[in-house]
Structure formats: structure tokens, C-alpha cells
Amino acid sequence: MATDFVKNNEKYAKDQHKPNLPIPPSKKLLIVTCMDARIDTFASLGLEQGECHVVRNAGGCAQDAIRNIVISQRLLGTREIAVFHHTGCGMLTFTTDQLKDILRKDADDAAKAEVDKIGSFLEFKDLEESVKEDVKFLKNHPLVLKETKVSGWIFRVEDGKVVQVA
Ligand SMILES: [Zn+2]
Fold this sequence. Notes:
The protein is α/β, with parallel strands linked by helices. It has helices spanning about 5-15, 40-45, 65-75, 95-105, 110-115, 125-140, and strands spanning about 30-35, 50-55, 80-85, 150-155, 160-165. The protein has six helices and five strands, in the order H-E-H-E-H-E-H-H-H-E-E. Zinc ion binds near residues 34 and 89.
């Protein structure tokens, strides 16, 4: 719980934190991945503090990460993007219309107006296809630098392995 943060932070601050790292990621790498609580991006890919940016959102959707990617590339020098989606993702389990129905159930007028503004929750039906689409989206996006190396991956929650698919 959030109330344990201060207590739990003591050891980290004393033994693990690296206060003098430069702001730009040393590997010039940005990872887009899902917010899923079962994924430990740094440990699973052998990455350390200071080496990369990690943008997390529901699904690891590239479209949702554009604001972060622009800042990362133009102001902090990253030149490679790796997109990760994963098996057992919640984004495979619903449709935008279903979630909108849930939101509208107990919504007041202000909430209903917000629901109407949402185009899509960016859910997907096919895991591998969704990674390929995100890679294509980034390669063709006018604000993503042309020289960017973009790759697409699946993280398998069952066994912790990663598989490149794009
Ligand atoms: Zn997920």
C-alpha cells in the first residue's frame, strides 16, 4: 500500500539508488510496454537504471505513447523503439463499446460527455498482429524520426520469455 512507501524506500535509497546518472538514456532506447503488474521490464530484459525510457500504458499501445516518444527522441536523444505486447493481456478481453456501456451505467451528464469524447480504448483482437500494426504505425508516423530502429516483441507471461515478431 502507498502508506508503506516511506518505510520500504529506506533500503532502496541507501543501497540501490544511483543519484548521478545523466538524464538521456545511455542505450538511446525507448520501450513501450503494457502496464500489466506481472511484467518487470528492467529485470526481464537485463536493463539497468539510466539505460532506457519505459513508457507503460494499457496494452503497450504505440498510439498512446506518441507524446512520450516525441519528448524522448527530440529532447533526450533516444533512437531505438521496442514495442512489447504480452500474452494474457486485458486488452484482448473487451471491446470499446462494452467498456463505454459500463462507464455510461452510473454516469452523470459530465461523465457521459467524457465517454462520448473517447474514440477507442485501443483494444486488440490478435496479439501478434497488434504488435506488427504498432511497429508499422511508428515507422510511418510523421513525428517519429526517420532513422529510428523500431522492433516489435511479445512477452510471454506463462514462461517469462520474449519473442521478436516485427
Ligand atoms: Zn496487458
